Amino acid sequence: MEKYLLYINGEFRESSDGGTFKAINPANGDIIAEISKATIDDTQKAIDAARKAFDSGIWSDLPGEERSRIIKQIVDKINENAKRLTLLEVTDSGSTIKKAGEDVFLSAKSLNHYSKMALLNLDEEVEGLSKPGVSKNIVKRDPIGVCGLITPWNFPLKMAIWKLGPALAAGCTVILKPAMETSVTAMELARMISETDMPKGVVNIICGEGSKIGTELALSPKVDKIAFTGSTEVGKIIMKNASADLKKLTLECGGKSANIVLDDADIDMAVDGAIYAGFYHQGQCCEGGTRLLVHEKIYDEFAEKLKAKIMKMKIGDPMDKTTDVGPIVNESQFNSVMGYINTGKEEGAEILVGGNRFGETGYYIEPTVFFNATNDMKISQEEIFGPIVTMIKFKDDDDAVRIANDSIYGLGGAVWSGNDERALKLAERLRTGTVWINEYHLLSDRAPFGGYKQSGIGREFGIDGLKEYTEAKHIHIDEIKDRSKKTWYGTVVPKD
Ligand code: NAD
Fold it and tell me: What residue owns the CA closest to ligand 1's atom 8?
């Protein structure tokens, strides 16, 4: 069994009270690791280390080339350890090995992209109030400072990298706090970072309870920004805590995205797409297509084909390369998802397929589709975060847009159609951060990702994502050196 210690100021340490917690394999209940559980005192030490490292300029003052080189060393470490990281991701989170391998590959790819972003000079010269030649106006982008990075359990390594990458590229120092359910690969990251030239204190990684150490990060006046991915509920708590000192925030929160199938779609492709959108990683995806909106003309045919295809999905051991559906991350999440299956039945939706626990060991749930669901049902409005899709009927494009936008969330969504122009028009009317046309889940390191409405604040990826880790500073340089030629706006300066 692996043992992981906290990573603070470049050193591995036990927690101050010696406390630990266990990492459990959700496929079989095995304990796979013991991890030190940070106390408030440990959290403060990690914050102090990050603060000292930031204020010393040891990272932010390095030339972009040097920061880029060191970030690239982490990329190389991830690639060298890809197999180990993949296996740990499977045993720690219940991810299928297919998904875990892809996550590790994409984590390295994203971090590599950020290593290049460290080379960017985001400063620009803009026109000022006075005429050109009279003043010069520079907009500089300074690193925002010390960042608390708080991540969820569904894509453990990837979520850590999505935050670590832009923070380090921008010149910030960090305290990364992964979810307790899946802390193992973040601690592996600590080990790998300790083997690079990263200066001490720039990256600190601590595990433990969000309600304690996450709260400390959000409240501490020594932390300049919180970058959070997780539930909308916790996002709101963080926002409240961070308001004490107007800390900067990016929040990537929940979703209930509409996956819209128009009557001119290639039905077989859209069926595959609906499975991918709704059941990728057992439906534990914030942007998942959990509300499946299907045109009334094709609704029954679509349902029949969807059911037949879902019956072919292989549920079971996530280590098996042919497995499509692995376990839910833990018992409490399993119980919550099973509870929603009951809720759907009580609300009067019919089960098209699934609806049961699978097997007796491990937290497996059959991919489940509710048929003839309506958008006002709880199962259509609340984020379930499991393999549950609600199938809702619509009449025409206006009706689809109305239903899709009738949600407190606005993170993802898709349109399936044989007519790109029609699909694009519809996509433009959706109040959501990402829309795919005849595709799902694919994100780009170069395009912003984030939520409208209660799906979040701010964006990750692309230049927008990098700028979230900077403060904009305007420097106005007056170029009139002769006092007699100077004009003071307003009248407060008396003439000689
Ligand atoms: P969660 O909100 O329970 O926890 C997320 C993180 O916040 C964990 O590290 C947790 O320990 C920490 N935390 C908990 N309470 C805290 C507090 N009071 N103060 C500070 N930190 C605290 O979410 P989860 O269950 O780990 O993940 C599932 C949720 O994440 C879903 O709602 C999902 O939609 C969301 N998610 C969103 C995105 C996105 O990009 N929008 C991506 C993945 C997951």
Answer: 179
Instruction: Please indicate whether residue 460, judged by its CB atom, sits closer than 6 Å to ligand 1.
Output: no
Q: Provide the terminal-to-terminal Cα distance of the chain, rounded to the nearest Å.
A: 82
Question: Residue 479's CB: how many other CB atoms inside 10 A?
Answer: 10
**Is the domain of 163 the same as that of 52?**
yes
**What is the number of the ligand 1 atom nearest to the C-alpha of 230?**
30
If asked whether residues 233 and 265 sit together in one domain, one would say no
Task: Give residue 356 CA to ligand 1 midpoint distance, Å.
Answer: 26
Rounded Cα–Cα distance for residues 362 and 6 (Å):
29
Instruction: Give the tens place of pLDDT for each residue, 272-326.
Output: 999 999 999 999 999 999 999 999 999 999 999 999 999 999 999 999 999 999 9
Q: At 255, give phi and psi (nearest 5°).
A: -155, 165
Considering the domain architecture, whether residues 225 and 310 belong to the same structural domain is answered as no
Is the CB–ligand 1 distance for residue 362 below 6 Å? no
Residues noted as catalytic: 252, 286
What is the reported pTM?
0.96
Q: Are residues 423 and 463 in the same domain?
A: no
Q: Do 240 and 385 share a domain, yes or no?
A: no
Indicate whether 247 and 263 sit together in one domain: no
